Predict the structure of Putative restriction endonuclease domain-containing protein.
Amino acid sequence: MTHERQHDVDAFPRAPTQAEWEAMSGEERARVVEALPAEVTWEEMPMPEGDLHTEARWRAQDALQDYFKPPRRRAYVSVALPIYYPGERRFAPDLLVVLDVEPHLRGKWLVSHEGKGLDWVMEVHVGGDRKKDAEDNVRRYARLGIPEYFIYDRARERLEAYRLPSPDAREYVRMEPEQGWYFSEVLGLELQLDGERLRFWAGNALLLDMEERNERLREMLGRMEQRRASAEQVRWLDETEHRLEEEARRREEAERRRAELQSELERLKSRGP
């Protein structure tokens, strides 16, 4: 083993190999899960890429988390979570999805402990060395058996996608878009770039993030308020019309009564003393 390889192995914690994991007792496994850190070091992470990078991640995460709610298929969606594959160097992808698992809060994903690996990964690229996302991760994620890998290159406003052609394959096939749209077989969703936004579609339905859902809610409440105000105005007009009609009826009744009294007075005067 070279010095560089030895340093690579020893410098950062790794999960046991699958054979080592299977040979452990339940208590030993629990100690491993507890001991593996729920964070990665600066040496393992790419340099911060600013708001464009952060915004793209949380918008995508929020849209997917909202979509994968009951009664839909269960899914765990997370960002920058430390991932431990058996015997492999850990990593923390920008966005990940694992299907058919409980979506509770986690500090890390230990494949042997969880019983499955990642189903879908996306990396967001804004600046720095693009080689990690566009070359290194393409090989790495395919070797780990991650079925689909998307790259959102926000600096160039481009979307790239890769898929394993079969469950046993360990080399990606590049996905070709149809008129700018990519279909994710894993998520069952279509992806497209709309200006500066990455969009997810479920059929004809656009998946909205929290900011957009709140804006829709504000618009809906605004329309409800307008309808309520209009209804109140109509009710006020109806009540005003009713009052005016009632007042007119009372005036007519008073005028009729006055006319009757005047007629009676004239009759009495005509009879004389």
User: Anything to note?
Assistant: The radius of gyration is 35 Å.
